[in-house]
Amino acid sequence: MILKDIFFKKFVITAEIGPPKSWQVESLIQQYKKYLTEKIDAINVTDNQASVMKFGSLGMSILLKQNGFEPIYQITCRDRNRIALQSDILNAAFFGIQNLLLLTGDHPIVGDHKNAKPVFDLDSVSLIYTVKNLMQGYDLAGNKLSGEPPKFCIGAAVAPETEYLDSQIFKMEKKINAGAEFFQTQLVFNPEKFIKFINIVRKNFGKIPIMAGITILKSVNMAKFMNENIPGINIPESIIKQLELDKEKTKSGQKGLEIAANIIKDIKPYCEGIHIMPLGWINKIPQLLSLAEL
Amino acid sequence: MNLNFAKFDLKPEQELKFLLKKKDDLILIVCSKCFVNYTSEEVSQSCKPVFEIFKRLNKKIKKCIELNFLCSTYINKEKILEIINKYERYEICVFSCGLGIQNIAKLIEKEIVAISNSIQPKYSYNSETLHHGISLDNDKFCATCGECFLNYTSGICPIVECPKSLLNGPCGGAKNAKCEVDKEKDCVWIKIYNILKEKNYKTNSKVLIRKYNNLLFEENKKLIEKNLAIRVKDFCGGVYPQENKNITQNISTEKFLSPQIVKIFLSQHIGKPSIPLVKIGDYVFLGQKIAKSDGFLSANIHSSVSGKVIDIKEIFHPIAKKNLPAIVIENDNKELKDYKIKPKNNWKNLNKQKILEIIFEKGIVGLGGAMFPTHVKLSSNKKIDTLIINASECEPYINVDNRTILENTKEIIEGINIIKFLLDIKNTIFAIEDNKIEAIEKLRSILPKEIKIEVLKTKYPQGAEKILIKKLLNLKIPKNKIPLEYGILVHNISTVYLIYKAVVEGIPFIERTVTIAGDEEIKKKYGNYIIKIGTPIDFIVKNSFNENFNLEKFLLKFSGYIMGVELKTLDTAIIKGCNSILGLIKKNNYSLYNKCIKCGRCVDVCPMELEPLEFVFSYQENKMDNLERLNMKNCIECGCCEYICPSKIYIVEIIKQLKNRF
Amino acid sequence: MFVLKVKKQEEIFELINNKKTFVFICEGCNEIFLYREEITKFLDSLSKENIIDTKIVDYICNPEYIKNYFEIFKKTIDLSDIILIFSCGVGVQTANKISNLPVYTGCDTLHIPGYKGVETVADENYDCILCGNCYLNYTANICPLTSCPKELLNGPCGGAKNGKCEIDNKKDCSWEKIFEKLKKYNNFEKIKNEILTRKF
Q: What is the distance between the alpha carbons of residues B461 and B464, in angstroms, rounded to a whole number?
């Protein structure tokens, strides 16, 4: 299933998983089967997230596809040059992976191999452009691909709640011009800010599918940590207060689920889907969906 | 050395067309490139391609200015701003490497058009960035990786030379020992391996892995700040030569051997030569006046020995670099003193006029280097507010001021009092560099409170008058003005000591402290000596350097390591302004006609913000029309440019000759 | 501008390994910032028998000069087993070409941005890496290759937090700066319509 076929027909729900630092991943598939039910339209596979070396996103995407899931294959520009990126994308096409999320990627310095060479041969915009070219039957150097061109749905990322919205919108426009077909956002915590962002997007770019990023907050500390360290995230004081109010309820995840469900309810009329980043709490996803009445 | 290290090239015509759409009236700022041979041919060639393309594109160039080193704000800021203000509504095109473009972009609040691409040296095959401004050799580069592997790769850098930057051995792509990337190029790793074996290098069994992201931003910033601190601190430019002061730093001053004859030049100072008062055959006493001042800017000269005048003839003058008359006296070693040498127990009984007369009579000249007659400086009718005592002896090797402070502290204070009395000065600053720790301590313990001690960072030429004033009083003395006009008097510490000796002890300027030092190879006896004016150089050489010394292999520097002049003959003598005699291994061959490679280092180090390379160019190409614009008169002849010059050009000598032609 | 960092002492000890060593220290060139004191301290810590001679020279990156130095100091160089050089990478390579003895270096060469304009390096990463395809016309004359750690050409990465870079919270996000300037010049046309890629 290619995502662009279902946008605007239904409210799209995707979830994100991070492969482990291991090669034995079969047991995870069982877990996914249990919690990522048919309500989930597709599963996002992160590409060595936060520059920490892990099981690769291509392999995991293939494995998911073989097990009946619909993967969204994430690709970053940190580790591969344009040759490797394009050839990986061709691999993905063969295995039936049709949805891509193209990112620049974190710098190696934030990860666990600090001395690694940052490649960044291409960046997210030029990678989108490259995939677009592949879809038209040409590689980046302009050579023709033999046979049918591959078909993909190109996703890109945007941070709606950042303090520098202008430059985000600017880059978003470049991404759209380059060929991005849907956007997945950074975590949303302020529905009114998000709606403001959506309004700008509608005004400038019309009907482009936006999928809001959602997570389940686990604790006050986690919220504070994210506020301080993770770019583009801005958890309002009111949410932190809610978390502080009932420690037990927060610990069990009940509070986090309620908050997330409320956000989903608030923004649902404005976007085309949500993207759940469970950050380990994959087992809470069914609960979240029923709370949010999805 | 032949260099053409092109750093930028014009963008393709198509791109220029796109960039300059709807922009028809242009101002062109061109950087005249660095690391190229600086000749008139190169200069006339540099703008040609730009003009051709612009003509084809139908663009009008309202004004084209060509500047040296667009990346340096110091020398170009005013010129660029002037142009831009004048032609405000025009588009600005810049033809330079990325540094120049960014520098101009930063200066002005307007978008500029870069019409050039910066390019890597042709030698580079890989994506490693090579940095310019470091290499004089056309085929050796450094990628400044920060983790040098040369120790394990026999001194050949695989990061730069191997297209794959392989660290641990050849890749297997080599065919007939040629690289897979370029059939013309030898495989670097085969070369490395051969040399490793041949020269018996230490082999390393470790796996070598690059560490990227090694230098974090904060660390980097610290380094930048550290560098900025030394480069622009106190004054722009300047150099940090190896000090080598420790050779004679702790050696007490002693009297040098008395020579058999002395040769006393009639030109011991700036201004007119003195008029001899003795004739051949006369007997003179120690300290007897043998030549008198000729006019306002001149000074008396006294005999430094007792004996018979045996000749008055022309001898090679070390500073003037030509033959000048000198009085030759045969020393009878009796040291019979002139009757006029009488100590005055209390100078405070004398009036100002009388003291000035004594200073004039005893032939005191400034020892700061210029040898300016001291009485002229002291008889100014301008109101003087500040007296600066200059003890920032920034020249390497020399310890004259340092020893004088340590050994004659009381005398110096008395000398300062005399000057203060003469000109009614209230404010006194004692400027000393932070490398003379012992002297600073001594001064702190002895100097009266009203004299302020300013400890300066050691940097050459910290001791130059105008630089010192800018640092201490934050006052920039404009071109063609002297500090006296601003109520500031600067005196060298040794001059102050001489004033004391003349006024209190009645001793004329017949001897001075000189540091004799140099390299270990030719050492016989180094130290700080009180040497009689007129002592022949060959006598000093014979007693200070060993039998290895000869003028072919060694350099004899007269009065300073940087500012001093190179002596090519031993048949000359000590003059009043000579602070040192240095014997050094001759490492490089300097010449007036070595070719400038336009590295811009002389511009970097010039404390007066001049462009010394332009003087060299003018001299070598015989083009004098530029010199006025280049402010050559401002040059203080500190020698920083000559010290740093990688082409080893006698820049100071060139400037001196050019100054004479005007 | 370059900084020479003296290598770890153990590493140099291992290289010298009780061999007779002739030391060249290259000084003079103004681009190089040499930690002179560190070197002197290090040399003092070595045993006197190991160090045959120490000579301070300048511009050993010029093959003619280093040839000259080898001749001048031939007497002591002939007594040595190895040559240890404190200079930038170019100097060591040039010396190696001339020398018959193994040449070792005691330094790492680090580059710090900005070549000549002394103030130019004062506030931000400001440099030219000779990429061969100048992008300054698209980026408000601020080079993203030298000021952005990811060398992004098409816009900011989204990793900035409070206007600071993701790899270092002391460093300003250079794309925010570019963006600000573009706004000021009101010139988004060129960069909006171009997808920029590096041409290696």
A: 6
Give, for A167, the enclosing helix (H) or strand (E): helix A165-178
Express each pLDDT in B92-123 by its tens digit.
899 988 888 888 888 888 888 889 888 876 66
* CATH architecture assignment, domain B511-585: Roll (3.10)
pLDDT classification of C118: cutoffs 50, 70, 90: very low
Domain ranges of chain B: 8-118, 261-331, 347-505, 511-585, 601-661
Q: A178: which chain C residues are within 8 Å (Cβ-Cβ)?
A: 195
Based on the domain organization, do C67 and C131 belong to the same domain?
no
Interface of C with A (CB under 8 A): 149-163, 166-167, 173, 175-176, 179, 183, 188, 191-193, 195-198, 200
Question: Any idea what the CATH number is for the domain that residue C107 is in?
Answer: 3.40.50.2300
The predicted model gives B617-637 an average pLDDT of 84
Q: Which residues of C touch B140 (CB under 8 A)?
A: 61, 90, 93-94, 97
* Best to test chain B binding among C111, C168, C199 (most B CBs inside 10 Å): C111
C37 and C99 share a domain? Answer: yes
Q: Decide if C117 is inside a domain.
A: no
Whether the Cβ atoms of residue B285 and residue B337 lie closer than 8 Å to each other: yes
Instruction: Give me the mean pLDDT over the B598-608 stretch.
Output: 85
Chains that touch B (3 or more CB pairs under 8 A): A, C
Residue A81 vs residue B133, higher pLDDT:
A81
What is the rounded distance in angstroms from the CA atom of residue B662 to the CA atom of residue B532?
35
Chain-wide mean pLDDT for chain B? 86
Tell me the per-residue pLDDT of B474-513, one tens digit each, with 9 for 90 and over.
888 877 788 888 889 899 999 999 999 999 998 999 999 9
Does C46 contact chain B (CB < 8 Å)?
A: no
> Which tokens in the block code for residue B69?
């080193």
Question: What's the mean pLDDT in B294-319?
Answer: 91
Give start and end residues of each alpha helix (H) in chain C: 9-16, 36-45, 63-72, 74-77, 89-98, 144-147, 174-185, 189-193
> Which residues on chain B are in Cβ contact (under 8 Å) with A106?
none
Distance from CA of C19 to the nearest CA of A (A): 34
Burial of residue C121, with CB atoms counted within 10 A of its CB: 0-12 exposed, 13-18 middle, 19 or more buried: buried
Q: Do C105 and C130 sit in the same domain of this protein?
A: no
Interchain contact C76–B (C-beta under 8 A): no
- Examine the domain organization and report whether C74 and C152 are in the same domain: no
Average pLDDT over residues A145-171: 91
The verdict on residue C42 lying in a domain is yes
- CA separation for the pair A78, C150 (Å, rounded): 8
Taking an 8 Å cut-off on Cβ atoms, the answer to whether C93 and B150 are in contact is yes
**% of chain A exceeding 90 in pLDDT:** 77
Average pLDDT over residues B180-187: 82
Number of structural domains, chain C?
2
pTM higher than 0.90? no
By the CB < 8 Å criterion, does A117 face chain B?
Answer: yes
- The CATH number assigned to the domain with range B347-505 reads 3.40.50.11540
Range of the domain at C71: 2-111
Nearest-neighbour CA in chain C from A69: distance (Å): 29
Rounded to whole angstroms, how far apart are CA atoms C158 and C156?
6
CATH fold group of domain B261-331: OB fold (Dihydrolipoamide Acetyltransferase, E2P) (2.40.50)
Measured between CB atoms, does A243 come within 8 Å of chain C?
Answer: no
Query: Confidence band (pLDDT; 50, 70, 90) for C117?
Result: very low
Looking at domain B8-118, its CATH class is: alpha beta
C-alpha Rg value of chain C to the nearest Å: 23
Chain B residues within 8 A of C117 when measuring between CB atoms: 71-74, 99, 103
Domains observed in chain A: 3-291 (3.20.20.220)
Query: Which residues from chain A sit within 8 angstroms of residue B213, using beta carbons?
Result: 107-109, 114-116, 118
Whether the pLDDT of residue C124 is over 60: the answer is no
Residues C26 and C84 occupy one common structural domain = yes
Helix (H, G, I), strand (E, B) or coil at A31: helix
Fold matches, B8-118 and B347-505: yes
Q: What CA–CA distance (Å, rounded) separates B418 from B491?
A: 12
Chains in touch with C (3+ beta-carbon pairs under 8 Å) read A, B
What's the confidence (pLDDT) of residue C121? 46
In this prediction, residue B132 has a pLDDT band, given cuts at 50, 70 and 90, of low
Average pLDDT, integer, range B229-252: 81
pLDDT at C122: 44
Q: Residues C74, C139: one domain?
A: no
